[in-house]
Amino acid sequence: MRSFVLPRLSLLLSLLLSLLLAPLAHAQTEVRIGSASPLSGPGAHLGKDIENGARMAVDELNAKGIVIGGKKITWVLQPEDDGSDPKMGTAVAQKLVDAGVAAVVGHLNSGTTVPASKLYASAGIPQISPAATTPLYTRQGYKTAFRVVANDQLIGRALARQAIGTLKAKRIAVIDDRTAFGQGLADEFARAVKAAGGAAIVSRQFTHDKATDFSAILTQIRAQRPDVIFYGGMDAVAGPMLKQMKALGLQARLVAGDGVCSEKLPELAGDALGEDRVLCAVAGGVDQAGEAAFAAFGERYRQRYGYPLQTYAPYAYDAVMVFAAAMQAAQATAPAGFLPALAKVRHEGVTGPIAFDAKGDLRDAALTLYTYRKGKKTKLQVLRAQ
After folding, report:
1. Can you list the domains of the chain with their CATH numbers?
2. N or C: which end of the chain has fewer CB within 10 A?
């Protein structure tokens, strides 16, 4: 009898032990990633681009079944609408902090990114902006602030060199929308033009980011006969501005940063877009070796959403993947656990190699110059920031 009972008891104990250990073997941890960008208002198409790129990354991570610290990770994206408004931006930041997100992709605008960054820093939550270019963002001393695009100093210098060296401009007018991004980029551009010499700033004008009528400032500019008009702002304003430039007979070329350099600009500008009339720079880009991967991402995006990416989706995608890489390197998903690894990360993204300097800026940042031909955004050249 004993010989029968003992094996049976051993089997029961083995089954009980396996049942007790099963939840541990399949333990899961939810990692919530915040996405903050304008999902309403004039910049909604650019903000949705950020959300879409981040969502693609989250879905791919879930498909991989990643294990960190012995636990399978379920990745969750929490998108929030900051309306391109600084007050909404801080409210959204606090909401994400209260939700216990592990990291944040955002914001789009410099004017929302900077005030929000203080809240993330206070909570110890890492933030990667896929779009904000103001130098101030990474100069506040926050160990939580990073970006995967070039900053305004680099973009302003590059565009000034293009305006003077390539477009041969002698007389340049500058307009900005008085936002942190628009004014900051315009200031850097004007400073670089003056430093380079060979061209004069003949007019400096201001508008706002929801303006639709530019007749007064463009009339003043027309009297100065500029070769180039630089605009610091977003495409929602640049499109109507191009229409009014055409109506006033202004033949000047328009030079701008990545806020203007979108796939939607042809729709916003109509036939005023012209051929090679706009020269703009996106604060990122890939060299020839990375073009295939970048193009493949663009095709995956188009197949998923049914329309082409605007500008920032691949940078938002890479931001999420960089967070994931840092968590895997640290074998930790809590912000305090993976933040040191994030500062040291080396990641090959669809936008190129990603590593951060001591401030949180992208090392060896690239810029991509574009123009518009036959109603399509056309790549001209990738530059390394100098």
Report:
1. 28-149+288-355 (3.40.50.2300), 153-282+369-384 (3.40.50.2300)
2. N
